TrEMBL record:
The keyword Transmembrane applies. This is VanZ-like domain-containing protein. Residues 43-120 form the VanZ-like domain. Pfam families: VanZ (PF04892). The lineage of its organism: Bacteria, Pseudomonadati, Bacteroidota, Flavobacteriia, Flavobacteriales. The chain crosses the membrane at residues 12-31, 46-63, 75-94, 100-120. It comes from the Bacteria. InterPro entries: VanZ-like (IPR006976). Keywords: Membrane, Transmembrane, Transmembrane helix.
Length: 122
């Protein structure tokens, strides 16, 4: 039983690591303007919110933390990661810029996941 639990936790560690790299990659690459069939208001902010909601969830599962203090550390790390990515966008990309509202959407995603999972787990 412990072996399957260990493999399950390791699986989430791989997912969390991959998701972190994916967020960094997708936020720092050049994306050509492509025509969209459906115009969704604030779709960029919804994407940022969703990315960091999932990021918090995956790292919480990967590290198997149950204490509030440890979960808040994950929230803080996700927020810092989002800020770092925004700064890197401003420095290293020519077609993207650092956006405080993207950082806010990242923060809201991580905090919302923390709050949501606190209520779901009760």
């Amino acid at each position: 039983m412990k072996i399957t639990q260990h493999l399950s936790e390791r699986k989430f560690l791989y997912f969390a690591f991959f998701w972190s790299i994916f967020i960094g990659y997708i936020c720092l690459i050049t994306i050509k303007k492509t025509p969209t069939l459906v115009s969704i208001p604030f779709k960029d902010k919804i994407a940022h919110f969703s990315f960091y909601f999932i990021l918090f969830y995956l790292w919480k599962k990967a590290l198997n933390v149950k204490e509030i203090k440890s979960q808040l550390k994950i929230v803080l790390m996700a927020v810092l990661y989002g800020i770092i990515i925004e700064v890197l966008q401003g420095i290293f990309t020519s077609d993207r810029h650092a956006d405080i509202f993207d950082a806010l959407a990242n923060t809201l995603g991580a905090v919302s996941a923390f709050v949501f999972l606190r209520f779901v787990n009760k």
